[in-house]
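Closing statement on the iron/sulfur cluster sub-project.
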Amino acid sequence: MPSVLRGRLLEHPNTCLTNERLFAIVSRMRWQITEQRTQGAFWPDEQLVERHVGTGEYSGLEFLHVNARAIVNRVPAASHMPFEHTINTYRGCSHACTYCFARPTHAYLDLGIGVDFDTKIVVKVNSVERARAELAPLRWGHRHVALGTNTDPYQKAEGKYHLTQGLIGVFAEHRVPFSILTKSTLILRDARRLAAATKIVRVQANLSVATLDQTVWKASEPGTPPPAKRIEAVARLNSAGVPCGVLMGPILPMLSDSDEQIRATVKAAVGAGATNVVGLLLHLRPGVRDHYFEWLAQAFPHLVEPYERRYGSRAYLPHVEQKELSTKIARFVEEARAPRRARSGRPGSAPVSAIPSAPTNRAERLRQLGIASGAADPLVARPSDIPVALALPLPFAVIA
Ligand code: SF4
């Protein structure tokens, strides 16, 4: 808690505060302090412009407008990500997934990682203008940019602000190859724009669909569209000429990891013409872990102990389990493709499933993925074919 906030709290005349009252006061004071900051300094590279309370279909949400000084982020060289540059237009996410690894980023803003993360959405309102300036061809050189690496670029706010839509226009204008990972069917709004961009640059979309299980979906991803609708979006994007794969992530141990559940999702993805199918196991880093366990205790209390045993003090399950999952998905993909192949009388082409064994550095990972060689084999991923999490038998899952 900032010292200025602590000081004001101690001055508060009510000495018998309940936790709820205390929380309400702290929240209110945070905002007063935020609003009082000179020039609205809100993030080292962002400037708070104003705050909007959502109405109508956005009621329950607050939008914090900021101007970002820079919009393209460079991924640290030591990262295991298969891409080097990202844009994250929103912070916080109304999809409210209980396991979301991005939650702790809200703590940097002096906001909570629970309800605040789900409802107080930071909007970089100058994203499109910044991108247009930073991605100018002479300066940028047509390098790949990934969207959806932190929070969802098609979350509810996008329906109001159209910033991801604007970015697609900039990518096409400047011929910047790009990928998008989302859990939202709102991406279909931009299907024609994306299809047009594919004529100019390499584009790859990925819908994140962890499971088709209705109970698990409703409990763990309460703000997202139904999984079946997302699968339908995969089919519609591919039909429109926008290559689209499926990221099954995260698969939740003891909730969505049975063979039947995984097979059903893979079958649906293959049926939708997914260009790739990748699965990721849940990881629980500090902060997110507490949030997830609180949710587990309410929604599936009988699983708290088994989870504690399974995860112990670690954030990631053993690497061998991720490999087993990848192998299983590859097998289910083959199963699902077999009838299609038999009907066509041809060996199958897409989708892709297998992930190579985890390489140790980015150059090697890109080589294994066929990027350095510019491989034309449709079974080998090209740079923009890489779903955000394709290199993630490694402990750096990105989930949107
Ligand atoms: S996991 Fe993705 S879709 Fe879900 S809350 Fe986080 S950023 Fe949003």
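Residues 1-41, 350-360, 362-400 have pLDDT under 50 and may be disordered. With this model delivered, the sub-project is considered complete and its resources will be redirected to Aim 3.
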